[in-house]
């Protein structure tokens, strides 16, 4: 029989994917979960931000995200080179990575060509493979936030279709590597994979 302390530690450790549509409440869920796990385990939190403030609208979004999370959390900015930044950071803190979707966009746009929409994407492929290798090996607490973008219509433009395809493949790989997966819909968190066996 597992005692309460052991059960609590087991429940709080691991890799979690939190996925949902735009404005589904996935970031709020991740922040609440990180606060709870941080308190339970007595660990600091590092918020890994992948956004880039390339225009005023994105600057505004970044300010709103900063206001949502505790001021005591550390911030690590890694719009590219995510795996390397995480390896350099170590595993002392609980990590909240927000978000996988912007990170994909940042890498995808480096190589995508409208005249060759199905060509290889070496920057993205390298970033993805290095990150998945890091994720499979990491032993600390990691909360990944990602967008579900495949539930709507097929996009009109080749870039949008390629992004949707790559996001779907990435989400599948992340889900396979994570111990738990939670789908957030209209602010409601629905467990779809549990560490216990699902």
UniProtKB/TrEMBL annotation:
Top-level division of the source organism's lineage: Bacteria
Catalyzed reaction equations: adenosylcob(III)inamide + ATP = adenosylcob(III)inamide phosphate + ADP + H(+); adenosylcob(III)inamide + GTP = adenosylcob(III)inamide phosphate + GDP + H(+); adenosylcob(III)inamide phosphate + GTP + H(+) = adenosylcob(III)inamide-GDP + diphosphate
Gene Ontology terms, MF aspect: adenosylcobinamide kinase activity; cobinamide phosphate guanylyltransferase activity
Enzyme's top EC category: transferase
Alphabetical keyword list: ATP-binding, Cobalamin biosynthesis, GTP-binding, Kinase, Nucleotide-binding, Nucleotidyltransferase, Transferase
Pathway(s) the chain acts in: Cofactor biosynthesis; adenosylcobalamin biosynthesis; adenosylcobalamin from cob(II)yrinate a,c-diamide: step 6/7; Cofactor biosynthesis; adenosylcobalamin biosynthesis; adenosylcobalamin from cob(II)yrinate a,c-diamide: step 5/7
Pfam families (alphabetical): CobU (PF02283)
Keyword Cell division: no
Keyword Zinc: no
SUPFAM superfamilies the record matches: P-loop containing nucleoside triphosphate hydrolases (SSF52540)
Family statement: Belongs to the CobU/CobP family.
Task performed by this protein: Catalyzes ATP-dependent phosphorylation of adenosylcobinamide and addition of GMP to adenosylcobinamide phosphate.
Matching PANTHER family: BIFUNCTIONAL ADENOSYLCOBALAMIN BIOSYNTHESIS PROTEIN COBU, PTHR34848
Protein name stated in the entry: Bifunctional adenosylcobalamin biosynthesis protein
């Amino acid at each position: 029989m597992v005692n309460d302390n052991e059960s609590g530690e087991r429940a709080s450790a691991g890799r979690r994917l939190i996925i949902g549509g735009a404005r589904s409440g996935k970031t709020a869920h991740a922040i609440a979960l990180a606060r709870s796990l941080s308190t339970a385990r007595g660990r600091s939190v590092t918020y890994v931000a992948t956004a880039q403030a390339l225009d005023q609208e994105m600057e505004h979004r970044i300010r709103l995200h900063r206001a949502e999370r505790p001021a005591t959390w550390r911030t690590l900015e890694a719009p590219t080179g995510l795996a390397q930044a995480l390896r350099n950071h170590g595993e002392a803190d609980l990590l909240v990575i927000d978000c996988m979707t912007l990170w994909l966009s940042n890498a995808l746009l480096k190589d995508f060509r409208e005249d060759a929409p199905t060509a290889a994407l070496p920057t993205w492929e390298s970033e993805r493979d290095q990150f998945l290798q890091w994720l499979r090996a990491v032993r600390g607490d990691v909360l990944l936030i990602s967008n579900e973008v495949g539930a709507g219509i097929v996009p009109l433009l080749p870039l949008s279709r390629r992004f949707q395809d790559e996001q779907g493949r990435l989400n599948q790989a992340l889900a396979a590597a994570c111990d738990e997966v939670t789908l957030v819909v209209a602010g409601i968190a629905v467990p779809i994979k549990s560490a216990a066996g699902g």
